[in-house]
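Schema walk-through. Below, the input block comes first and the output block second. Nothing else is stored per chain. Lengths vary across the set, and this one has 80 residues.
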Amino acid sequence: MHIKITAFGITRDIVGSHTVELELDKDASVNDLRTALGKAYPRLADLTSLAIAVNQEYAQNDIQLSENDEVVLIPPVSGG
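--- output ---
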């Protein structure tokens, strides 16, 4: 399955683009996506946290993905 991912903040810098595309198995979950992202972009592991939103909702690792899902990488946020 073909997944299009939007990256913000430091994740955009790490992946080198605002959007990236990955091929995953047809029955892939958010956890499978995390694994694939870690292999493709090892520097993502350096982040203290990385949230993934699917269809505008924070997604748990066991959520199943579909090809038309809107997937967003949300980096750690800091500020004051």
